[in-house]
Amino acid sequence: MRKLSRHEWIAGSFEAFCEGGVDALRVEPLAKRLGVTKGSFYHHFANRRALHMELLGEWERLGTSQIIDDISDSSPDASDRLRKLAHETMRSDPFVDAIETGVRSWAATDREVSAAVARVDERRLAFAEALLREIGIPRALAKRRSMLLYRVLIGEFMWRTAGGPIMSAREIDEFVDHLIVPR
């Protein structure tokens, strides 16, 4: 049998998670799916929960930290960064949508996952709020608008996951235009 790296275990686990949620993250079926022994799993992870926490960390890194870092370095203009954030996070990606939906569903039944989702939500909201503040939107209004942006984002991935039409680039730009108008 071939050997799997930790990264390959995580990638394969994300695929299984997208198809079957947290229940699909059982060691034996994962090993069979990936064509390796259970020993390969235990070479990289102490137990199933360790894999769960690793997946959560990777979800946070890829879906939050990496996006924030990329957006932060993309332009000196906060309006441009906010627009890029909206386009980056609202673009259709069925794999990303399935992970986000799955993690949020999982959070309803697991306190640690719920705490991770709350932490990620807080960080994402704070980033959007900071961009709005940099544009010149007053603090209270920036807070409300960052929440509006986030709610639209969550609604968008839920909508398209259920088969609804995808938000166009023009619609995203129009939405951002509403967010950055000072009032």
Notes on the protein architecture:
By secondary structure, the protein is an all-alpha fold. Helices cover 78% and strands 0% of the residues. It contains 9 helices and no strands. It has helices spanning 6-20, 27-34, 38-44, 48-72, 78-90, 94-107, 111-135, 139-161, 169-180. The longest helix has 25 residues, at 48-72. The radius of gyration is 19 Å and the shape is elongated. The model has no long low-confidence stretch (mean pLDDT 94).
Quick structural summary:
With 183 residues, this protein is mainly α.
List keywords for this structure.
mainly alpha, 183 residues, 9 helices
Task: Describe the SSE topology.
Blueprint: H1 6-20, H2 27-34, H3 38-44, H4 48-72, H5 78-90, H6 94-107, H7 111-135, H8 139-161, H9 169-180
Helix pairs in contact: 1-6, 4-5, 4-7, 5-7, 5-9, 6-7, 7-8
Main structural class = mainly alpha
Order of helices and strands: HHHHHHHHH
Indicate the radius of gyration in whole angstroms: 19 Å
Note the overall shape.
Answer: elongated
Oligomer: single chain
Q: Give the overall pLDDT as a whole number.
A: 94
Total DSSP E strands: 0
Q: Please mark out the parts with pLDDT under 50 across 5 or more consecutive residues, or reply none.
A: none
Secondary structure tally, helices: 9
Separation of the first and last Cα atoms: 63 Å
Percent of sequence in beta strands: under 5%
The residue fraction in helices comes out at over 70%
Main beta-sheet strand count, sense and barrel state: none
